[in-house]
Design brief:
Layout (H helix, E strand, L loop, with lengths): L1 H19 L5 H15 L1 H19 L1 H14 L2 H28 L7 H8 L3 H16 L3
Helix pairs in contact: 1-4, 1-7, 2-3, 3-5, 4-5, 5-6, 5-7
């Protein structure tokens, strides 16, 4: 029963992450592509654009990955489920770091960091989802 409790909590965390849409910022991708175009040229910008688009899709699937990982851990091997959950949590945290960096590059004051985090997590749903997913993944045993 203990095992199922952590799987259910991980599933709930993934749903909360999905509801709050904890993903990376599109503005960051545009900023990076502009910088790459100036530094390396148009050919490199096209390649880098493809890479950034792939990373954006991975970050968008953070909540879905956590949900799928918890289902795998519930019905199959725990190790594979924990790996998929870890990928989902990692991509969501990567997206949140991108939002933070984008706001700092844009010139947002350090005193505004609580507002940045609040908007990055889309209120408390995203924060609760990420924290619940991290805690429940740590508690899942192999």
């Amino acid at each position: 029963m203990e095992h199922k409790k952590w799987i259910l909590l991980c599933f709930i965390g993934g749903v909360l992450m999905l509801i709050s849409s904890v993903v990376g910022s599109v503005g960051f991708i545009g900023t990076v592509l502009d910088w790459v175009a100036v530094q390396f040229g148009v050919e490199t910008t096209t390649t880098f654009s493809i890479l950034m688009t792939i990373l954006a899709y991975i970050a968008a699937g953070g909540g879905i990955s956590v949900i799928v990982g918890s289902l795998i851990a519930g019905y199959g091997p725990d190790r594979i489920g924990r790996i998929v959950i870890g990928i989902g949590i990692g991509s969501s945290l990567f997206g949140l770091i991108i939002i933070l960096i984008t706001n700092l590059i844009a010139g947002v004051a350090i005193s505004d960091l609580p507002n940045i985090f609040s908007s990055a997590f889309n209120g408390s749903y995203g924060l609760a989802g990420v924290l619940i997913s991290i805690f429940s993944r740590m508690r899942l045993k192999d």
